[in-house]
Design a protein that fits this description.
The chain is an alpha/beta fold and 336 residues long. The chain contains 10 helices and 9 strands. It has a 9-stranded mixed β-sheet, with helices on both faces.
């Protein structure tokens, strides 16, 4: 079963989703052909929510299940230069590798926004990603309200506990969508500090500033403040071989380094729930720099790492595994 939330317009004549904005809509696909428009069924938001709740209610009781074996409700947010077709195909690959079969981590939902599907569309995609952050914030706020309701119900009856962890995998400029959405959701809910909305956030080749999470009393907080305060753990998967993000830094950000290319900026304090992993050794050494940007989703070693991250594996245990990157993280987080 595939699930999708989108603010793309529907092109009925071409039987696809376009690169223009529309109201949020909710879709389900019960077939194996994720990239066929005809197989997607439009749903009402309440029906969509109830469908997800029905599935998560079948997950193992978290009170009797080790944390690393608990199931997830995961959201995948794609990056720029993605048509709906390319976005949904990548989503299908993620589902097949992480959310299918006996080793499934749970259920995965695609959030697809109106990227133009063109490298030359970088600048308009940046604007559309920012605007899409408001729509994704509506999704996160609804999720937050539901989780808060479940907390109240669980106090009265422990059997009402939420059975799914929430997690997010974001790629490239999709991390900019998440950045904006989390800041809106955090502010909208009066900057809560007592409940984590997201258990694990995996930022793959993130096209955001690498000082996003700067913290401390002597400098202004970075724009990742909402993410850091609403997420239990944030992991940035990066590679210095990523030429796409090298271009991004030069084009748009006056040379400011990209998190997905350089890793965290260690010249400033970083919250202790944020860390990075250099994935260069996990990727095919024969790839050219332009192909590295999306290669994480074609590499079994990267999927194995994502699985361990979503399961919440401790950093020291993760790097002791045989399939771990050959080097430790570039820098350990600093508690602000």
């Amino acid at each position: 079963m595939y699930w999708m939330i989108t603010n793309r317009n529907v092109d009925s004549q071409a039987k696809t989703f376009g690169d223009g904005f529309s109201d949020l809509s909710f879709w389900q696909n019960a077939t194996d052909k994720v990239d066929s428009f005809d197989n997607w069924t439009l749903m009402k938001e309440d029906e969509f929510r109830q469908g997800l709740v029905a599935i998560t209610d079948t997950f193992p009781d978290p009170n009797q299940t080790p944390s690393e074996d608990q199931k997830h409700l995961n959201i995948f947010v794609h990056g720029f230069d993605n048509t709906w077709l390319s976005a949904v195909q990548r989503y299908g690959a993620i589902v097949n590798n992480l959310f299918s079969g006996p080793q499934s981590l749970g259920i995965c939902v695609l959030f697809t926004w109106p990227s133009m599907g063109s490298v030359t569309g970088y600048f308009p995609d940046r604007s559309e990603a920012r605007q899409s952050g408001d729509d994704f914030a509506d999704v996160l706020s609804s999720l937050y309200d539901w989780m808060r309701m479940k907390q109240v119900q669980t106090v009265k009856d422990p059997s009402n506990t939420c059975k799914a962890k929430t997690s997010v995998i974001a790629h490239s400029m999709g991390n900019f969508v998440v950045e904006n959405a989390m800041n809106v959701a955090w502010t909208r809910n009066n900057r809560p500090l007592l409940m984590s909305l997201i258990s694990q956030l995996v930022m793959v080749a993130a096209d955001v500033d690498n000082d996003l999470f700067r913290a401390g009393d002597t400098v202004q907080h970075g724009n990742g403040e909402g993410i850091a305060n609403l997420t239990y753990r944030i992991t940035a998967m990066y590679s210095g071989r990523d030429s796409v993000l090298g271009m991004s830094a030069g084009l748009k950000h006056f040379g400011k380094r990209r998190l997905g290319r350089s890793g965290l900026d260690t010249t400033c304090p970083i919250p202790d729930n944020v860390w990075d992993i250099d994935c260069s050794t996990l990727l095919d050494p024969g790839l050219n720099g332009m192909d590295v940007h999306g290669a994480y989703f074609a590499e079994p070693k990267c999927y194995a790492l994502m699985r361990d991250l979503l399961r919440g594996m401790d950093r020291s245990v993760l790097f002791a595994k045989d399939n771990a990157p050959t080097a430790l993280p570039k820098a350990q987080p600093v508690t602000s």
